[in-house]
Write a structure and sequence with these properties.
Layout lengths: L13 E5 L1 H18 L6 E6 L3 H8 L7 E9 L2 H4 L4 E5 L9 E9 L3 H11 L5 E9 L12 E5 L5 E2 L15 E4 L2
Parallel strand pairs: 2-3, 2-5, 5-6, 6-7
Antiparallel strand pairs: 1-9, 3-4, 8-9
Helix pairs in contact: 1-2
The chain binds guanosine-5'-monophosphate.
The site of guanosine-5'-monophosphate has 16 residues, from strand 5, helix 4 and strand 8.
Length: 182
């Protein structure tokens, strides 16, 4: 506890793309829209582990409707198969979603393959409604057509870290979103 800047060295090469204030203020706006759209309902929010954990926890604390949460963990196979959209479920939901109003919560949409697969998979379990909210979207990188129902920010085609997003499991705890300086 002697050096207050001890953590800074490791993020020196990263510049802030979205500040904590920008992120929090956008989440407040998104939560107002979502609370309004789901008025009178009790949606099940499904967070995609691990990246969406921080976004989900900030989002739900701004929602004004009753809700439930659950989590799903997926991994795409290596590059070759990832392009075919093959995604493996590492940890499945704890419950049936039949008849429920499901809102998938994701940190970032990139190629679209993960969400394309998950929407297909979860649709087959017959939810009443199924929508997707993502904090970030890199539309330039799409390999399959995919449009989230709610999106926080469109960002350029850069590798981002922080606010739940990792680089080799590091940096998830940063309150802002950063890009590697090139
Ligand atoms: P997609 O299937 O849309 O290509 O990939 C979505 C997943 O790829 C995200 O959930 C995230 O785990 C990872 N991802 C995509 N872009 C980035 C990025 O810029 N930074 C980090 N840390 N992960 C990313």
């Amino acid at each position: 506890m002697t050096d207050h800047h001890a953590g800074k060295t490791s993020t020196d090469n990263f510049e802030v793309l979205l500040s904590e204030e920008q992120i929090q203020s956008r989440i407040t706006e998104m939560a107002a829209v979502i609370s309004n759209d789901y008025r009178g309902k009790r949606p099940l929010l499904i967070g995609i582990l691990k990246g969406a954990v921080i976004f989900l926890s900030d989002l739900i604390r701004n929602l004004t409707i009753p809700l439930e949460i659950d989590f799903i963990a997926v991994s795409s196979y290596g590059d070759a198969t990832a392009s075919s959209g093959v995604v493996r479920i590492l940890k499945d939901l704890e419950q049936s979603i039949q008849g429920k109003d499901v809102l998938i919560v994701e940190d970032i949409v990139d190629t679209g393959l993960t969400l394309n697969y998950l929407v297909d998979n979860l649709s087959s379990r017959q939810p009443r409604t199924l929508k997707v909210v993502t904090l970030l979207d890199k539309p330039e990188r799409r390999k399959v057509e995919f449009e989230p129902d709610y999106c926080g920010f469109h960002i350029p085609d850069r590798f981002v870290i922080g606010y739940g997003l990792d680089f080799g499991e590091d940096y998830r705890q940063l309150s802002d979103l950063r890009v590697l300086n090139q």
